[in-house]
Amino acid sequence: MRRFCALISRTKRSSDEINFLRKSVALGSASSAQTTSSETTKASFSTTNTPAVDENLVPVFVDGREVHVQKGVTVLQACEHAGVHVPRFCYHPRLSIAGNCRMCLVEVEKSPKPVASCAMPVMPNMNIKTTTDLVKKAREGVMEFLLINHPLDCPICDQGGECELQDQSMIFGSDRSRFTEGKRAVEDKELGPLVKTVMTRCIHCTRCVRFATEVAGVQELGVTGRGGQAEIGTYVSKLLSSELSGNVIDLCPVGALTSKPFAFTARSWELKPTETIDVLDGLGSSIRVDSKGTEVMRITPRLHEGVNEEWISDKARFSYDGLKRQRLDAPYAKNPKTNKLEKVTWETALEIVGEQLSKADPRNLRAVAGKLADCESIVALKDVMTSLGCVNFEVEGVNADAVNVDSRSNYIMNSNIVGVEDADVVLMVGADVRLEAPVLNARLRRANVAGGVKMATLGHHGDLTYPVENLGTEASIINDLLSGKHAFSETLKNAKNPCVIVGSAVLNRPDCAQLLKSLHQLSDQFGVVTNDWNGFNVLQASGGTTGALDLGFVSSKNKHISENDGLKVVYNLGSETISSYDSEPGKKFVIYQGHHGDVGAAGADVVLPGAAYTEKDATYVNTEGRAQRALACVAPPGLARADWKILRAVSEFAMVPLKYNTIEQCRERLAEVSPTFNAIDEVEPSLWLNGASYAHLAGGTPNVAAKGGAGKKTSGATVFASEPLTTNVENFYMTDAITRASATMARCSKAKATGSAF
Amino acid sequence: MTSSDLFFTTTTTTTSKKNNGMNNNNNNNKRNTNSNTNTKNIFKQQTSKTNNNQTFSHVINERLYSVGLMVHRDSAENNSSLKWEFSKENETKVQTILKRYPPNYKRSAMIPLLDVAQQQNAGYLTVPVMNHIAELLEVAPIRVYEVATFYSMFNRSKVGSYHVMVCGTTPCMLRGSRDIEKALSEHLGVKKFETTRDGKFTLGEMECMGCCVNAPMIAVADYTGGVEKYTYNYYEDLTPESAVSIVQTLAQGKMPEKVGSQIRNKAEPITGTTTLNTEPTGPNCRDLAKLKKELEAAAAEAAKAAAAEAAAGAKK
């Protein structure tokens, strides 16, 4: 329901949204629990002919039909509300109004000329006509002008088939041109390895310019020149430096900006779309995967107001070629003679795995969940290993000894993703949100630019595209904040809804527990968590981590690897951070199950080929604790199989067969472990333990005296590790096995480093 | 044959035939100038005869490139790695300009600052110049590039010390601006948008500069002495000869005798003024002298009364 509220608060809406809202009006009354918001919804968009009760509503007539719309909305929005589609190129609900394409002309009674509906606010009792001859003629005229300089290269244009200009010209275009003069040609711009430009096709809607300036926050694109010589570009040749640059491809209504990696590989109508989710960062953005045969051809965003609106990061959009390289397409086992991995049959591999697991001392068993692991396979692995008596579990990138997973509020984004816009002060600790979750960063930017939210950071980071106050990089500054010594304490104290965003890097620091304890203390002290507001947010790095923590994939308290000499058996479910077990002494037998031949597989004794997120029906939990379903878009390569099925087979060979045989049963098991999985695509608020989460740790409160080394409290203040707080994302384009295998991401990394696309 | 000639192959071939393969373009040009040389009275028909063989696209393309490329090409003298700053004297000027606008609308000063910068930088804006202004105004450089490319009075490539701009808009064209352009081009030995070898003159073109009543006209921007000596003068009512003589005078480092119309006082009819030649006969709306007297008398009376009142108050 938060989604609806968020919608209502914004004035610009697309037709989809409005249709969606309309549905929610019908549905809204049924859900009694959400009365407040559904009432608002009803009030703001009543379509009945009864007189408006709300004084914020004004009646307008669209093609003779009376509708009531909010004051201040534009004529175009009123038309959309009445169900009348108005053609447009430059108007976009999430960007500022430019009013320069003139395609949305409509007739308004008593107005001498047709008006650009996208830029004209409604007046009470306005009589809007969209079907008159005047409108048709006006739009035809605009279309003729737009086509004057537009090349006739639709057959070789990648936008062909999904081009707004192509579609509109079918309605308003003429079958022949009256323009006999020379067409102009514009030089193509080099915008980097992702966005291909054919600038002659540009119709100067300036959507890309507005997106770069307003949403992405990188003021690099602009309109140079004027009139017939106007061009979109950077003037001084420069690559787009945004992590959201791919979105200009979707925004471009013509084929001027298209995807470079996708160029000439498929026509849009040949593709099979699958609506799924992205797992490469913590947000779990909604995406549509377009596939042809067994290949993922491209990835585009889907609308999800609660998560990614309609943007996705370049990593989510362009790393798909990594799904075709370095893949594990057959089981491998180490040949004892050569000590090299060799291809084996599934049967052999499973026999080896089963034998090793079942004969190992349970205290020597260890399971690691990678950051891209899906919840079905995590629960299956946990069940198998627990049946074998294993007590050692760890999640990639999380110092599980330190993070208290008893309450979800300790490791999720409690304010939700949309909630960061309700905050008035945001403090980011050990995070570079632009690199860790660019779409969230765009939201924070909007909160700052449009909402005036104060932004502060603690730790190293790059340019976040909005002004931030950096409090320093030392973790000890938290002590100053707590004691009120720091000037920023005052700001936090005066804030109504302060919000803390903890980067995933914090979860992997040696002093993680102390840091989290102090941050919890800070949250309680400064009202980051109150009865009706919880602004304590952990920004997880990828799609698998939150799910693993939800499923309790952590060691039991009485754990610990025995010091006996027995062979230690590690079951690695797709983790590429092998230092946790690799550095330990003793002989080890490593079973790696995953989809890419990366660090994890290289150090394994048996490799079981699994499926990537586009190849299996799976559940992931995003950083705000929203369980989402991914769908299989293409088949896994070669002999690779869906991960939970592999674990089902492993359980059979290890003599501890799992009780579930189908994915539905597996999901029932998921719901049994955590109620999160009962409500797909919903976020439930979770309990805040008011400091109880880390009460077992010494230190923090000034009146408790304690002695000890690092991480312990001395003379009133907690001592933290000396290394500065920073993000764990060094290179935005390469953060996991998939992106490391991607040639496009490699090109992006290179372009970023050298500033040149070649 | 240059590439631009190749583009208009049809034109060249047809005219070549007519002129027996002689260098055709110059001949065509002469024909136009000849028709005008004998006339002293500039109000005789002066329209240049347009060559029917020339395609319209020629004209279009000539005009398309009137303000140069809309993208930047790095060169040794002009690239973003260079630094540029306002001179000390101009810095005070910059501060005066900046003071005119509220601090949160600093970017309003963009056009005046670009103007000063162009004067300081010998008539053109380089990337470092624009970057410096962006820095001053706290905006992204692209926002300055957009403005500088939008306005054709900002040059983005090197120009001569004197930028001679011939008005090319309809009224001037009808009054013979094409002939003036041709005469200047021949005199300076450069084509349109080119600079003479000594770097003194650039022959340019501008669109309507608002002097249609005294058409044809040229504007000359003088960048010889930086901001201090900078002038931007109009020379109106020109003939090809007078245009050339203006340029000749400038070349000698002197100022032409007359700025503005070369033959008129202001913009009165060429036959002399026909109206408002005598003192106004009245009745006037108001007798200002009388009104002034009355007002002064009233003020004096009021002052007297006030003084009396003050005196009375003091007595009490």
UniProtKB/TrEMBL annotation, chain A:
Highest rank taxon of the organism: Eukaryota
GO BP term (any one): ATP synthesis coupled electron transport
GO cellular component: membrane
InterPro entries given in the database record: 2Fe-2S_ferredoxin-like_sf (IPR036010), 2Fe-2S_ferredoxin-type (IPR001041), Mopterin_OxRdtase (IPR006656), Mopterin_OxRdtase_4Fe-4S_dom (IPR006963), NADH_UbQ_OxRdtase_75kDa_su_CS (IPR000283), NADH_UbQ_OxRdtase_ferredoxin (IPR054351), NADH_UbQ_OxRdtase_Gsu (IPR010228), NADH_UbQ_OxRdtase_Gsu_4Fe4S-bd (IPR019574)
Ranges for domain 4Fe-4S Mo/W bis-MGD-type: 271-327
Presence of the UniProt keyword Translocase in the record: yes
Gene3D superfamilies per record: 3.10.20.740, 3.30.200.210, 3.30.70.20, 3.40.50.740
CDD domains given in the database record: fer2, MopB_Res-Cmplx1_Nad11
Protein name: NADH dehydrogenase subunit G
Organism, as annotated: Bathycoccus prasinos
Automatic annotation (TrEMBL), chain B:
Stored Pfam families: 2Fe-2S_thioredx (PF01257)
Annotated Gene Ontology cellular component terms: catalytic complex; membrane protein complex; mitochondrial inner membrane
Source superkingdom: Eukaryota
Segments traversing the membrane: none
Keyword Translocase tagged: yes
Gene Ontology biological-process annotations: mitochondrial electron transport, NADH to ubiquinone
Compositional bias annotation for Low complexity: 9-38
GO MF term set: 2 iron, 2 sulfur cluster binding; metal ion binding; NADH dehydrogenase (ubiquinone) activity; NADH dehydrogenase activity
Record region (Disordered): 1-38
InterPro entries: NuoE-like (IPR002023), NuoE_dom (IPR042128), NuoE_N (IPR041921), Thioredoxin-like_sf (IPR036249)
Swiss-Prot/TrEMBL keywords: 2Fe-2S, Iron, Iron-sulfur, Metal-binding, NAD, Translocase
Cofactor(s) of this protein: [2Fe-2S] cluster
Family to which this protein belongs: Belongs to the complex I 24 kDa subunit family.
Name the UniProt record assigns to this protein: Uncharacterized protein
Organism: Bathycoccus prasinos
Lineage: Eukaryota, Viridiplantae, Chlorophyta, Mamiellophyceae, Mamiellales
